[in-house]
Automatic annotation (TrEMBL):
Superkingdom classification of source: Bacteria
One GO term of the biological process aspect: colanic acid biosynthetic process
Any one Gene Ontology cellular component term annotated for this protein: membrane
Subcellular location(s) of the protein: Membrane
Transmembrane segments: 7-29, 41-59, 71-91, 103-120, 262-289
Pfam families in the record: Bac_transf, CoA_binding_3
Protein name per UniProt: Sugar transferase
Organism of origin: Photobacterium halotolerans
GO molecular function: undecaprenyl-phosphate glucose phosphotransferase activity
């Protein structure tokens, strides 16, 4: 609905500009080709929509104040203006005369702020919420509280309550409200207008009301396993509660040689374009590192990482730590690591230290999107401690990934487990469309300094 509202608003500002020009110059429309007007409309609306996506304004779980949203809209309008200008430069379509484009982008800025204000006041995220009932009140049912703690995590669903089932382990469960259904399940579902039933019983065999569930399903009520429910609502896989069959039957993305070649060509083309665009930034980083640590100090450093199917390769980065950072042996970086230099704090915050990995992408060691590659010693440790950790080696590692979008910086075993949940989700749903979405949304991390 928000996307549709934005399209309507942008189309209205474009049409209003055309009517304004026609009012002062009645011959304007007679000398304007319809096809050119359509292309101008696309060159105006499409860059703005992509920019809004890039800065996170189409994320329904975005937690931001009015001033924060205003800043994001300003950044989006600036990015869209530059992208639109680039489109005009590389295509034969002539620039609109005078200050028409500036007028339209100014109108878009005001219109977007009005649309967002109305959307926030009307709580548009709550429209179309599913009313759900959870069968189970034990350990598996408590996954909802652990994985969907915040109110923003539940914008799509309204939890009616939890129904205890025989065999539930309720000792460590703190779910609420717990319901006592005295009558039939289907009667309760119908009277409370339940749209979806979540199966979360700890012991299913012989304990589920299969006849009632079948009747509910025949009446149009969706019945879904809690693992699939968590995966759909949070974009992660509950690693500690999945069965080995999930891995065996998981249709993770596979492709033939032609598909892999085209996918490498896609990644390589974007990498080369980024190198052409960011070369001034690369030179500036080199100068800053030399300025801080001296002319003889190394700018780049390489580390051995674990890639596709466990193959080792050397990853490249701008050096963001002191030259003797690992004099005491290998150790994971932490949030306030004293080994990080002043320049390192800046380039790590905006992920600029990762730019040399564009060379790894060209070489074919990495993709743009995928699980972040780990060092061999840490990878071996995690494989022994975390179930299904080696499953992430089924795809090439990436410069960015689903876990980097969905989970903040982590530096311990618990954080690694949480990030694995998102990596497994990506592996299961891997596609070019998802990769493009992740690449666009990575712009939000870089622009607002949310990287590490």
């Amino acid at each position: 609905m928000l996307i549709f509202a934005d399209i309507l608003m942008l189309s209205a500002t474009f049409a209003g500009t055309q009517l304004f020009l026609f009012y002062f110059n009645p011959a304007y429309l007679q000398h304007t080709d319809i096809l050119i007007n359509v292309l101008n409309l696309i060159y105006y609306t499409l860059p703005i929509q992509l920019a809004l996506l890039a800065v996170g304004l189409y994320n329904e779980k975005l937690r931001e104040s009015h001033s924060g949203i205003t800043v994001r809209i300003l950044v989006a309008i600036s990015l869209a203006y530059m992208l639109s200008t680039s489109l005009y430069l590389i295509t034969p379509l002539p620039f609109p005369a005078g200050f028409i484009r500036e007028w339209m982008y100014g109108s878009a800025l005001v219109g977007l702020m009005i649309v967002r204000f109305i959307a926030i006041r009307s709580r548009y995220q709550m429209l179309g919420r599913l009313k759900v009932l959870i069968l189970g009140a034990g350990e598996r049912a408590s996954l909802i509280n652990r994985c969907m703690r915040r109110q923003s995590d539940r914008v799509h669903v309204e939890l009616t309550g939890y129904v205890p089932m025989p065999g539930d382990h309720r000792e460590n469960s703190n779910v609420s409200p717990v319901l006592d259904i005295s009558g039939s399940l289907e009667a309760f579902v119908q009277s409370n207008q339940i749209k979806e039933i979540i199966i979360a019983a700890d012991e299913r065999r012989g304990n589920l009301p299969t006849d009632s569930l079948f009747q509910c399903k025949m009446n149009g009520v969706q019945v879904i396993d809690i693992i699939d429910f968590i995966e759909r609502e949070t974009g992660q896989v509950a690693v500690s509660h999945i069965h080995p069959s999930w891995v065996i039957f998981n249709p993770h993305a596979t492709s033939n040689k032609v598909g892999r070649c085209l996918y490498w060509l896609f990644n390589c083309t974007i990498a080369m374009l980024l190198l052409l665009i960011t070369w001034p930034i690369l030179i500036a980083i080199i100068v800053m590192i030399k300025w801080e640590d001296g002319f003889r100090a190394p700018v780049l450093y390489s580390q051995v990482r674990v890639g596709l199917k466990g193959k080792h390769f050397s990853i490249y980065k701008f050096r963001s730590m002191k030259t003797d950072a690992e004099s005491q042996g290998e150790q994971m970086a932490s949030r306030r690591d004293p080994r990080i230099t002043r320049v390192g704090h800046v380039i790590r915050k905006y992920r600029l230290d990762e730019l040399p990995q564009l060379l790894n992408i060209v070489k074919g060691d990495m993709n743009f999107v995928g699980p972040r590659p780990e060092r061999p010693s840490f990878s071996s440790q995690f494989e022994q401690q975390i179930p299904y950790y080696n499953h992430r080696l089924y795809v090439k590692p990436g410069l960015t990934g689903w876990a980097q979008l969905k989970y903040p910086y982590g530096d311990n075993l618990e954080d690694t487990i949480e990030k694995l949940k998102f990596d497994l989700y990506y592996i299961k749903h891997k596609s070019v469309i998802l990769d493009i979405l992740i690449l666009i949304r990575t712009s939000e991390i870089v622009l607002f300094g949310k990287g590490r």
